[in-house]
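---------- Forwarded message ----------

FYI, see the PET hydrolase/cutinase-like domain-containing protein record below. Original note from H. follows.
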Amino acid sequence: MRSLSRRALLTVAALAVSAAVVPQTAVAAPAVAAPTSPRVYEKAGPHKAVKAPGGPAHTLYYPADGTGHPVLIWGNGTNATVDQYEQLFTHLASWGYVVAAANTGQSGSGEEMLAGARYLIAENSRPGSVFHGRIATGKIAAAGHSQGGGGAIAAGADPLVKTTLPIMPGPQGNVNKLHGPAFFVSGQADVVVPAFYVRSRFLACDQVPAVYGQLKGATHFLQGETRDRVIGAITAWLQYHLAGDQNAGSVFYGTVSGLDQDDEGWSATERNEMAA
């Protein structure tokens, strides 16, 4: 092989030196999307909400239009009525959910709530029903407040229920029987079901992804703006776990979630290892 000439060698050397001293163009790191704020989900959805009886045992709230609606079964607090939670139910109906709220203030067994799910599943198959072909029977969540929160945990052991939202829950149900993701909510100023008790139930729930949120300044009765905060968070949870809204997922999950960043609304947040 013919050797390089002296001139060629000098040229190669010069190019090498030039490449070493000329700064290289920096490659920008990929942008990381900011987590979604739970407050986004406090706004009403696009559907008109309808209220109707669901037999003698339930009150239903549902979207006036559309099909494939996920379901939320609900349990009231001790001696509470459905009307006391109507703001939440009409809000969820506007987002496309069918809510079956048990007409009782004693829903701790979870059976009253599950009866609502079974009623809607049957109506989905019944020709002539307003719900005929409109229910996503595989997308059912259980939620409730106080005793109803304990009832939601009890109902969440049933295979019908895909995710559970205990709001300031009582002692009913076994968190280790839940088989889907769970979102536990406490109130910072709750003296009826103290925050430390709700957190203890969250900590015991280690077999499924679980998230804990403590509402800043909230009493057991969700006064003022604390009610709006929990409504937005419940909606975001359902949007992610039942409707596949990926933006809603960042409200709860990620290195820093939207819930973590909402210091004005949430005084403490936590995720277990399965939700990290």
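H. also flagged this: Residues 37-275 form a domain with the Rossmann fold fold (CATH 3.40.50.1820).
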